[in-house]
Amino acid sequence: MKRLDSVDLEKLKMTGAGRAMAVLTSGGDAQGMNAAVRAVTRMGIYVGAKVYLIHEGYQGLVDGGDNITLAHWHSVTNIIQLGGTVIGSARCKAFTTHEGRLSAAFNLVQRGIANLCVCGGDGSLTGANIFRSEWSSLLQELVEKGRIAETVAQQYSYLNIVGLVGSIDNDFCGTDMTIGADSALHRIMEIVDAIMTTAQSHQRTFVLEVMGRHCGYLGLVSALASGADWLFIPEVPPQEGWEDRMCARLEASRTGSRLNIIIVAEGAIDANGKPISSTYIKDLVVKRLGYDTRVTVLGHVQRGGTPSAFDRILSCKLGVEAVVALMEASPDTPACVIGLSGNHAVRLPLMECVEMTKLVQQAMNEKRFNEAVKLRGGSFENNWNIYKLLAFQKPAQTKTNNSLAIVNVGAPAPGMNAAVRSAVRLAISHGHKVYAFHNGFQGLADDNLFEMEWYTVAGWTGQGGSRLGTKRTLPSKCMDKIVNTLNKYSISALLVIGGFEGYHGVLELFEARGHYEELCIPMCVIPATISNNVPGTDFSLGVDTAVNAAMEGCDKIKQSASGTKRRVFVVETMGGFCGYLATSTGLAVGADAVYIHEDPFTIRDLKTNVEHLAEKMKKDIQRGLVIRNENCHEHYTTDFIHKLYTAEGKGVFDCRVNVLGHLQQGGAPSPFDRNFGTKMGVKALQWISEKLADNCRQGRVFANAPNTACVLGLNRKVVSFTPVAELKPLTDFEHRVPKDQWWLNMRPLLKMLAKYQTSFSEYVPGSLKHVTERSLSVDAGF
């Protein structure tokens, strides 16, 4: 893939110089839109373009005047953490008319604007494409009416359009996630957690209605992340007789539990297309089962609140790519929308995405529901299949001879319990016996175990920390004892959920197979650490929760300085020698500098940062934020950086230190980590069952091939099982990190959005990805 190097950046600046562009938000608001506006504005200014903010969406574009304002770098300061959209959004009937679009064209061309970035849903983006297709004829009409000169029409003869999808429903085909969807899930799970406590106290059933008139994404993911007993979404109507099956399911789940949760999307329908209301479900449960049942309609609370870390980072990535796409556009370039594929921004033909999105609704209207699920993409289909698997499974009547051991290793990480729950239940449904060992490999050595039953793990999905307990002890310290325990309980497979020590420990067990036959069993590692430093995966369980916790801490720190003039905060994050947590937090909160081990820095760099902040403080900005990874430098400690900033900034600003510490490790898991842990537990157990079947001879398991000891990872959006033996040469054991880390390509974005001159040699521009029925059907989304 082509890379933008520093020469290309200069070309971009030459292209941007003298050009004007505008950004607007339209349709329903979504958390993260402000972060997108900020990124587009700053990247546009960075490449030398004039950037205009259009207030009140298309209505402001039609009305013109003060609704279209020239932006400066500081126009978008301190908005990244705000929900909604500070430039406003409005449904605009006038823009759907020819006269309205003629006024809009005049208001743009009057200011020399021929590049437009629209953040909204499919209706807003379709309107933008219509506007683009009519642009030439609209300008010609303005010339004929004497409102603009012919030379002006020739100078701005074509309009470039780039879209960003802002929608909490995640209903736009072609992109893995839309801006606002993750934040909406945060609001839903906060309410689910609160409701579960009261439901448990009173042994109640709760029916929760979430948004999703035409798309069940929010309902599906929140059901998976909460372990809901029943789910209603528009794409998968229940078959005839669902009332009996649901009531039977609710009765069965009351064994070992004091509550029921039913999640219903507002657009839920039955097989005949008849709406299923939350009130109908409540009345049904009361009548059939006599359960104390309540309805909670979440409504617009799902749109509100501060954006999640994921939505802020997503908006930064997509906003920067939108400007690059606009600067590179030509008259022959089709209008595109910037989407997400795996960890990377991609350019998608706008109308291909819109047409595919319409096909989903058409399939639902024609009751081709299986096709509708597939058209939603691989991630939606995978979520639905795993929800079905977990919701309708039950303990096997026939037992196998296999015994599975589960351990948590390393430091606690949010999402560990969700992975344990799904793995345990799937293992029991397969007929396996499951032993859980307390305190990692040390517990395995000390015979510190208990047998897991079906209801042992009830309610674990939303619990933080590690219910099994963890330790960092490696097997090499107690290998003989571990082997004795494995032999004593006839352990057939080992599932390790943990951080770098979990991976390192399984590597040690694999390498010891030549000495101990008992270690010739399938072994799988689910990476779980807030440091995100396990080789073989892009993401570890717990890191999303940790980034959100660090982000929320930094938001409060920044807010505390709002009444204090000229103050810089130095904030220390965890992460060991891996800078992912610090870098992601820095991008999510708009940090002025982030110091990490992977990006070496000198005293000159520190001095440059101090001077940069001092210059900002002399103008409109009254506070600064610097983030330091705990092990970024042997000598430039947090205390050293604090003293340096204090001394060098004397007379301009003062400086304070905050060490976030273990608050990054605690708390309830984020929706992503609950969902991720649940799915990883399922995938791990399916792999283990497959390996047990493949390596069983005459009733005895013997697995010594490298591919029977693996790390289960998510790379881009593909699930992979990588042998620990293959990962060993790719690992820096001294610093406990992979030698190659994908997230370093976020560093240029962070520096650019903080107004540092930087090379884009590591920036990978989005490639063009076509969106068709076939591309959606083969999408490997997880």
TrEMBL record:
N-terminal catalytic PFK domain 1 as annotated region, ranges: 1-392
Occurrences of domain Phosphofructokinase (ranges): 21-325, 404-688
Subcellular location: Cytoplasm
Pfam families named in the record: PFK
Keyword tRNA processing among UniProt keywords: no
Cross-referenced InterPro entries: 6-Pfructokinase_euk (IPR009161), ATP_PFK (IPR022953), PFK_vert-type (IPR041914), Phosphofructokinase_CS (IPR015912), Phosphofructokinase_dom (IPR000023), PKF_sf (IPR035966)
Binding site for substrate: 167-169, 204, 211-213, 266, 294, 300-303
Names of required cofactors: Mg(2+)
Assembly behavior: Homo- and heterotetramers.
Family affiliation: Belongs to the phosphofructokinase type A (PFKA) family. ATP-dependent PFK group I subfamily. Eukaryotic two domain clade "E" sub-subfamily. Belongs to the phosphofructokinase type A (PFKA) family. ATP-dependent PFK group I subfamily. Eukaryotic two domain clade 'E' sub-subfamily.
NCBIfam families named in the record: 6PF1K_euk
UniProt-recorded name of the protein: ATP-dependent 6-phosphofructokinase
